[in-house]
Amino acid sequence: MHRSSLNSGRDPVLSRRASVIITAVAVAVLVPATAYGVSHLSSGHRGTGHPLVASADDASGTAAPGQPASGSPSPAPAATTATRPARKPVRRISHPPAATPSATSSAPPASPASAACTHPQFVTSDPAGGWADGQYFVYNNMWNASKYPVSQTLYACSYSNWYVVATMNNDTGDGAVKTYPNAHEDFSEPAISSLHTISSTFSEQSPHVGIYEDAYDIWLNGVASSGSTEVMVWTENFHQVPSGSAEGSVTLGGRTYTAWRAGSYIALVATANFSSGTVNLLQIFDWIMSKGWIPASSTLGQIDYGAEIVSTGGSPATFSFSDFSISTG
């Protein structure tokens, strides 16, 4: 049985996350000029397919100990405005060979934000380092870090239990997203109208310092390729501003979002932060179709969840993820 779908439309974007045809191939894609708001220099994961080279060469865990930022977390203040580069940078995409998991005892001291993963099976500081765990891929994805002083190490116990310790700043004032560490699943482009369920659960703990957002990054109609559509769902926003302009609000699954749009980029930003829960992605896609922003014939390429990080205030900060799953059918 097929569900009925809705309307059409949106511009192409070439970017960073993952051109996923579920093949072990690596691709880098350049992005067209598109104005981005403070939180989004292109989705930093942005095309998160898999890294150009997934590696475990950092399995020895040599990065600085992960310690949560000092001070008690406080509710994220309203997004601030900042000037972002008007162009999306390169995104990493595609499926690299799966990295061999490597047990390690050199994880940094456990902290409240990382206590769930105390014995990582995979550790990497490689900008393109990643680990295949079943149908999912955990990816360090430092896709836009090369021009900035950035360090980031990923520690993974599983695709649903991992964290990163990141250090970066926004001293340039450009608001550029530097990294998008994430877990994701690639799909073989099924028509959204052929699916009765597309939902995902997540749980995260973030440091409430610097500038970042925790978000789903989803690729429709291809993955970070010409003609593809990038849909983001921001669940926790700390001082970030999406690309484009606000297009009104909508309540879906009991939560209210402000919709932002810039060409082939669409972001639904929760008006009230939530750090865990289940999101009905199919309902979101149907709503976007009803607005005519994507065609009724749209296909599903990739679903990612992670943190787009602009700044940690120049000190090490821990972003921890203790639940993640995707259900389709």
Care to describe what's here?
- This protein is mainly beta.
- It contains one helix and 17 strands.
- The chain has one helix at about 280-290, and strands at about 25-30, 90-95, 120-125, 130-135, 135-140, 150-160, 160-165, 180-185, 200-205, 210-220, 230-240, 245-250, 255-260, 265-270, 275-280, 300-310, 315-329.
- The longest helix has 10 residues, at about 280-290.
- It is globular.
- Mean pLDDT is about 75; it is low at about 1-45 and about 50-105.
List the helices and strands and how they pair.
Elements lengths: L26 E3 L61 E3 L28 E3 L5 E4 L2 E4 L11 E8 L2 E7 L14 E5 L11 E8 L5 E10 L8 E10 L6 E8 L2 E8 L2 E6 L5 E5 H10 L9 E12 L5 E12 L1
Parallel strand pairs: 11-14
Antiparallel strand pairs: 1-2, 3-6, 4-5, 5-8, 6-7, 7-17, 8-16, 9-15, 9-17, 10-11, 10-16, 12-13, 13-14
Q: Helical region count?
A: 1
Find the CATH topology: Jelly Rolls
CATH architecture label = Sandwich
Oligomer classification: single chain
Brief rundown of the structure:
With about 325 residues, the protein is mainly beta.
Keywords:
disordered N terminus; six-stranded antiparallel sheet; nine-stranded mixed sheet; Jelly Rolls; globular; 329 residues
